[in-house]
Amino acid sequence: MNLEKRLHVGKMYEEGLEVEKNIDLAIDVYEAIAKDGWPIGYFKIGQIYDLGKYVDKDLEKAKRYYEKGMILNERECTYNLGMINLKEGRNEEGVKILEKAIDLNHYEAFNSLGAYYEKRNDYEKAYFYYKKGEEHESGRSIFGLGVLYENGKGVKKDLKKAKEYYRRSWELGYVTALKFLLPLNECTNEEVEFLENETKKGDSTLDLALGKYYLSKGDLEKARMYGEKALSTCSEGVYNLLGGIEQRLRNSEKAMEYYNLGIEKGDIACKYSKGWLSFLLRDYKVAKEVYLELKESKSQVVYSMLIMVFSNLKEFKSIEEYYELLLEKNRDEKIKRMYGYSQFRLKEYKKVVEIYEQLNHLNQNEINMLGIGYYKIGRYEECLDTLKRMENQEEYEKYKIKIEGEEKKDGKLTKIWQVLAACI
Question: pLDDT digit string (tens) for 142-200?
């Protein structure tokens, strides 16, 4: 009897196909297959104990059979043994075994090693393994590349590339990629319908993705329905979704309640949302507290928000600190514009002029602030020249009158001093 037929006999006893289910007989069949020189028999027995579908789960027995298969270069045994080692915390051994699985042409190991390093924030190695998996058309590895590009981990953030990778992954049959395309508004109506049908089959992991999708579409009723379904399974990110829905509905108190629940569960996104909502509500003390807790992330968003918060709290020295930190990471004009605005709020007009004079293009609000800055430091001619550039000439007329008044006052004072000098 050839290998294929013998494996089928083992499967018949294992699953009770056309015969009474008998796991012991199935194991005997698989063991005989292995002893006759086909190590896939060891894989079949190891899998029985690994999955625990028909017997009590027993990883020790599974590992023993996988080890026997690995010695004979059976790639499935090698891969599964590597994964068990990683799950049990024997990371060095697990990585070593997965590398051997790659040598045996088990390309799924590329994805597993990419995911392993991604979880440990070693994005350079994660990228390396995902790219290797991409070479072998691994949908999961290509999906991993999409995640790196979407979040800017180890690579420059690029949503266009992320979408392309997710699309390729989905076309290769990796359904999870479609869940990530959904919130990015990259799904066709047919694909959305497909995902909604999958939730009816019991795939609760899709509820969160569908909730985010309908939130982005402004359908708050459906967004809330899927969000609340996801809440029952405690999906990561669900509190941030529900908070976002309540925030859209201008129910700030309820939104904050969800964000705080998410923070308790360790959802960092809820902390960012809480900081932003606190800022919008002008609760700058709470916003300051939240963003200071987030500053270890060294995120430009956090530094930028701290500048805005400290501007409103008029804590000038702190603004300087975070402006310098921002410049270390990014010298683009957006940061200077933000700092210029904060200095205007603090009435540091000399700095306002210094910053805005460096910029190539100013919007109407910045032109106005620069013009006022010139006025405040006594550069009247430049003030009027600048305010002339405003579409609305009210500010120009207003400061023209002010400057004329200042000049008349200066002229009167000059005459008084001339009279006094003559008397002396």
Answer: 999 999 999 999 999 999 999 999 999 999 999 889 989 988 888 888 999 998 888 88
**Cα–Cα dist 210/410, whole Å:** 68
CB 177 within 8 A of CB 169: yes
CA 127 to chain centre: 16
CA–CA dist 227, 220 (Å, integer): 10
Residue 399 and residue 374: Cα distance in Å, rounded?
11
pLDDT digits (tens, 9 = 90+) for 92-106: 999 999 999 999 999
* Cα gap 45→76, rounded to integer Å: 12
| 396 conformational bin, left if phi > 0, alpha if psi -120 to 50, beta if neither | alpha
Distance (Å, whole) CA 304 – CA 109? 40
The pTM of the full predicted model, rounded to 2 decimals, is 0.64
Q: Do the Cβ atoms of 354 and 343 come closer than 8 Å?
A: no
Contact yes or no for 161/149 (Cβ under 8 A):
yes
Cβ contacts of residue 373 below 8 Å, gap of 6+? Answer: 344, 349, 350, 352, 353, 356
